[in-house]
Specification:
Number of strands: 6
Strand content: 15-25%
Strand order of the largest sheet: 1-2-4-3-5-6
Shape: globular
Largest sheet: 6 strands, mixed
Helix content: 25-40%
Radius of gyration: 16 Å
Structural class: alpha/beta
Low-confidence stretches: none
Order of helices and strands: EEEHEHHEHEHH
Length: about 170
């Protein structure tokens, strides 16, 4: 377990066998009433440093926090300091495919009758609709998500940023 938390580091297979770092915590109080899969937002920081406090009130929830390919659970790197190789490979369709593969693996290893809830934070919220169609959760929770298709959000940002986007935005 991570020191001082109820979370245990876990590696789950993403698409094509890539390993994703995750954090898992059993329900803190009986009975377990739900299974919660969390998809964090953009950037290359993990939730290891904050997960215990972030999910402390969910006493009856088994919690899984999935991290993107290339994100360490204990990383605290600011989004603007992510390494170039991470930025170049960080793509929404890849994150969606990885999250689906990892979630399916986790659920298959932990069968149960408690309802599944998907929680998306920021960019993670944008993945929930396609994942919900495949995973059939009881509920979706979107925290600070735009609600826009990422392609449409990118188009709107490109219009707003104009020449800067033409010069720099294509690599994102």
């Amino acid at each position: 377990a991570l020191a001082g938390t109820g979370f245990t580091p876990l590696a789950l297979p993403g698409e094509g066998g890539a390993l994703l770092q995750a954090l898992e915590r059993p329900a803190r109080a009986a009975p377990e009433r739900l299974r919660l899969i969390v998809l964090p937002g953009s950037g290359c920081a993990g939730m290891g440093a904050i997960a215990d406090r972030y999910f402390a009130a969910l006493l009856h929830a088994r919690v899984l926090v999935l991290h993107k390919r290339g994100v360490r659970a204990d990383a605290t790197t600011a989004a603007h300091e992510c390494p170039p190789d991470f930025v170049q490979q960080d793509a929404h369709p890849q994150w969606q495919a990885d999250a689906l593969a990892a979630a399916r693996h986790w659920l298959a290893e932990r069968p149960g009758s408690t309802p599944l809830v998907l929680l998306g934070i920021s960019e993670g919220a944008e993945l929930l609709a396609p994942l919900a169609a495949r995973l059939q959760p009881a509920a979706l929770v979107l925290v600070a998500g735009s609600g826009l298709d990422p392609v449409e959000a990118g188009r709107l940002q490109a219009q707003r940023l104009g020449a800067w986007w033409q010069a720099h935005g294509q690599r994102f």
